[in-house]
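Researcher: Sequence recovery benchmark, item below. Answer with residues only.
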């Protein structure tokens, strides 16, 4: 099953990236021509730059989810209400998230627009301004992603050894020392999953871009997954081979980030 649904599509996409194909007719062998064109494509570099911004800022979901989980992992009055509020973004679809933030940023009646107008005297149409649009979409994506990381860490905190906590307290560990030397090492499995899922979420990020801006204004909010769709499956020409080349680049970036994180975890566990 793994070979059928994971390995085969990866190999097939790599092979297809060397062809010109519209999805129906004969495949025409191009060699590396798709990649040569790709690296001379301004829209590709815009999408790549946006994906790098997504990766850098989306990783904020991991520490944010951790600290919210630490806050919620307490026995205090009303904590169930707080947990429900923080769980909420996780259970709604990306379509709903995109619509909520589109209304939030909307000129004239959007809460964010009116707040900025009240503070500065001039509102900012986030989704219509190429300087801010990518950051606005990332903020929308962080909302459910933080909730997801929080759930992972809450699960991990339930498995933290109370004996180690008690021993650390007897040794005088408190606050940051307790967190850094006792709790975080036991949360490595949760951290690994949180980082991997967050990297994948940052690199795909198709749904929010499609819902909130459709790649605009003027293509400035495109990411690689959206540009791949535009080239392979939209009115831009059904260039399956070119879209596959974009997919290969996207996969390579994902593997570099995830492999680097796995290597760091292995080194830390071995004390290297």
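Model:
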């Amino acid at each position: 099953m793994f070979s059928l649904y994971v390995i085969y599509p990866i190999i097939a996409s790599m092979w297809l990236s060397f062809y010109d194909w519209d999805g129906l007719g004969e495949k025409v062998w191009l060699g590396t021509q798709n990649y040569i064109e790709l690296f001379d494509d301004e829209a590709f570099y815009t999408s790549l730059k946006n994906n790098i911004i997504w990766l850098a800022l989306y990783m904020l979901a991991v520490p944010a989810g951790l600290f919210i989980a630490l806050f919620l992992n307490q026995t205090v009055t009303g904590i169930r209400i707080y947990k429900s509020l923080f769980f909420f973004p996780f259970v709604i679809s990306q379509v709903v998230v995109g619509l909520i933030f589109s209304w939030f940023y909307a000129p004239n009646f959007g809460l964010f627009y009116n707040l900025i107008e009240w503070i500065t005297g001039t509102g900012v149409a986030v989704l219509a301004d190429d300087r801010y649009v990518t950051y606005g979409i990332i903020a929308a994506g962080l909302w459910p992603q933080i909730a997801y990381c929080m759930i992972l860490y809450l699960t991990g905190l339930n498995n933290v050894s109370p004996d180690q906590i008690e021993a650390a307290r007897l040794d005088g560990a408190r606050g940051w020392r307790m967190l850094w030397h006792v709790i975080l090492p036991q949360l490595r499995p949760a951290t690994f999953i949180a980082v991997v899922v967050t990297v994948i979420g940052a690199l795909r990020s198709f749904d929010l871009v499609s819902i909130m801006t459709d790649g605009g204004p003027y293509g400035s909010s495109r990411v690689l997954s959206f540009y791949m769709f535009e080239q392979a499956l939209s009115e831009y020409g059904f260039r399956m081979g070119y879209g596959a080349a974009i997919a290969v680049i996207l996969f390579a970036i994902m593997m570099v980030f995830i492999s680097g994180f796995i290597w760091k975890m292995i080194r830390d566990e071995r004390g290297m």
